[in-house]
Amino acid sequence: MGTFFSDWYYLSIRNIRQIWRPIMALIPSMFIPIFFFVVNSQSLDRFSKVEGFPAHVSYKQFIAPVAIFTAIFFSAGNAGIELVQDISCGYFKKLLVMPIHHLAIVLGKLTEVAVQSVFQGGLVLILLMIFGVPINTGFFGVIAMFGMQILFAMAWSCIGMIAALRTQNARLVQSMFVLVFPFLYLTTSQAPKALLPPAFRTIVTYNPVTYIVEGVRALVLDGWGNPAIWQGFLVAGILFVVMVSLTLASFKSALK
Amino acid sequence: MHNSGMIIEVKDLAKTYPGGVEAVRGVTFDVKEGEFFGFLGPNGAGKTTTMNMLVNLVKKTSGTIKIDGFDVEHQPAEVYKRVGFAMQEIGLDETATAREMLELHGRLYHLPTKRIQEQIAKLLKLVELEKVADRYASTYSGGMRRRLDLALSLIHEPRVLFLDEPTQGLDPHARQLIWNHLRDLNRRGMTVFLTTHFMEEAETLCERIAIMDQGQIVTHGTVPELLAKHNAKNLEEVFLSTTGSSLADEEVNTKASDPYVRGRR
Fold it and tell me: Were both Cys, which of A87, A222, B64, B141 would link to A226 (CB 3.0–4.6 Å)?
């Protein structure tokens, strides 16, 4: 068991090192969330005056969680791309012929995703606070917010890893990035559920990402009493278990 | 060493891929401890599939494989401790330096820190990468990458070294350098299992050679034995008479994707 934790640790260190090599690769994932936050919060500011919009909440505050979320989507997408690169260059096979636990390879990737999502999400959060977005649940709310988002980021990263293990095709894995848009925008990310058209509302209800967005939003705008918080944790936890299980199954099938 | 004196024991090994392609059809052979063993064959003969099964990268359909007495399928961890594998495709982490990669591999083989540092110093010297050890692998030439790949497969001082086309894509100088390293390692007692398309490489390095065609071993023996058995003047003729294709053609097929050779044409 000791070697399992050691394998996990050293593989995580290797993966985490890849995050900032090259450092320039981090810039788009920092720039895009802030860009959309600034553009949307300025151009749609009057939307917060519409009847049905939460009272005493500015549009800037309403979409702040989405900016953090976008940064996390970006960071989670890299795991699959890095894995397919390792597979295509042969490095993955090298790992497979070492006396290491295969689970440590997957956990090493998930640890990288967790670290990167805290790092990138944290930087975006600092910028949001500079722009005047308060966190109503305070320090522990920030911790809870990152906990929920880390769970979700790790689950989301599994989509890329499954695609990498099943297809070993770099183009396909990179194209999985487009899934961010329907999953992020078919939620309450841009407007409260009450203001959405009925058909859209149905889709939003069945999109699991909605519950994470609402959970994070509750931590930013409301207080601990909002049920959206535990619902967000529940959905993030279920997604994590399901997606990691599917990744491990893909891992086993890749070895046949 | 295992009691039989054979470090690799393969019996009735077969692999049928989903879809029914029979890549390997009942292969049996042994490799002695300390032997330099060559595996030749035309493209698609089943060499790489066989080698991948020997290191448990591909699951066998039937048969048995033992490395140093350990069953590859049921005792993979024991086997992995004893083997090093340098593949046809050079698997490097482009975002890491040679030193970082060697250290990581040492950690993953669970070597003590002191031994890892000693091995890193020794291997960097052996493959002549000391001066560039702290540069990212992405900045290395083809020859340097191949030598680093070899060093990575040696970090834990394996009993058996599997090499799949180790000099493909290298210029003659780099090829000679790799040959010297391999000879040296073999002289020190390491068993080397090599697949190659280069006749000169097989003749120069290998004590015993097996030729594979259409998933089966069609002949095997030392070079003099093969020449006598097939009444041939050289290995090329043996290859031609046993597989129906020329080794030179195979070299050409391989070199078509070889950037160094393509550039010289």
Answer: A222
